[in-house]
Amino acid sequence: MPETPSNFSEFDAQGAGEALGAEPRTTRDVAHGDGEALNVGDAVLEVYPDAGVARVTTPDARIELFRVPNYAVSGERVIFEQSAQDDRTRLQVRADGKVAFHPILRATESPTTKETTTDGKQLPTTPSALSEPTTRRPDTAGATAPEGKEPAEQQLTGRLGRDPWYIPRDEGPVAGFPLAVNDQQGNTTWHKVFVDGELAEQVRTGLQTGQIKKGRLVQLNGTPVTRQEDNGKGGTKTTTEFHATSVTRLRNSTVPHPHGR
Predict the structure, then answer these.
(1) Distance separating the N- and C-terminal Cα atoms of the chain
(2) Residues spanned by CATH 2.40.50.140 within the chain?
(3) Which CATH superfamily is domain 138-260 in?
(4) Cα separations in angstroms, 261 against 53, 90, 117, 184
(5) Which of 25, 70, 72, 168 shows its CA 20 to 30 Å from the CA of 250?
(6) Tens digit of pLDDT for each residue in 15-47?
(7) Sign of the alpha-carbon dihedral angle for 217, 222, 223, 228
(8) Residue numbers in the chain where pLDDT is lower than 50
């Protein structure tokens, strides 16, 4: 379901608590002043609206964001983003206590029109804005998750539009790539795929061994994450990422190539 950003200074602790299944309580920090705290599994989420600070503490780490402009409640998640449009980080807290912190990255390069893959096939013409594709499966376009529910897991089968990018971080690596999914009529939908943790390492290893690279046919399981954000012109735009939980290379498949080739 879409993520609609709300002003961080007007943080709704009760609404966040309902999404996370936690009862908010007041807290105070000597540096940040009055705030709200929620115990979510083994994690503790603290929000200090007047100071613009969001903090999450787990048994193994503490993540603290400063100058947070807005937040969003999406299903059973509470999400905070910070920094400039092209250099943002996202902190996500789920109702099961799992915490994710990663950069929101745009594709740094686009595949060239009609690029030739290793098996002699050609990839489709790239959309003009590869970093902002629609990432719904062709057969589920328009589907939305029920209110208050996690998005249903989906499966995508397509070809990598470029070699995966990979970024090592202290809190865990992140990786991703654009994926072209083609239907039987030769129509192509581009998906912005994101992976983290152990799966990001596996994708990196796949690139090093040549198993997961530009032009390879892969099958993914995961969920789409759609959000609305400021377009810099006084309006909003909708962007979607596909957060994959598995990436498997396919060697023999009847999946159509772009343009029926």
Answers:
(1) 35
(2) 138-260
(3) Nucleic acid-binding proteins (2.40.50.140)
(4) 53, 39, 12, 11
(5) 168
(6) 999 999 999 999 999 989 999 999 999 999 999
(7) negative
(8) 1, 106-146, 258-261
Q: Which two tokens stand for residue 107?
A: 């594709």
Of 246, 241, 244, 247, residue with least CA distance to 90: 241
Q: Using a pLDDT cut of 90, give the percent of the chain over it.
A: 39
Please say whether the beta carbons of 75 and 149 come within 8 A. Answer: yes
Is 191 exposed, middle or buried (CB count within 10 Å of its CB: 0-12, 13-18, 19+)? buried
Length of the chain: 261
249 pairs with which residues across the strands? 218
- Decide: 93 and 99 in contact? Cβ < 8 Å: yes
According to the model, what pLDDT value does residue 143 have? 39
Structure tokens at 250: 């396919």
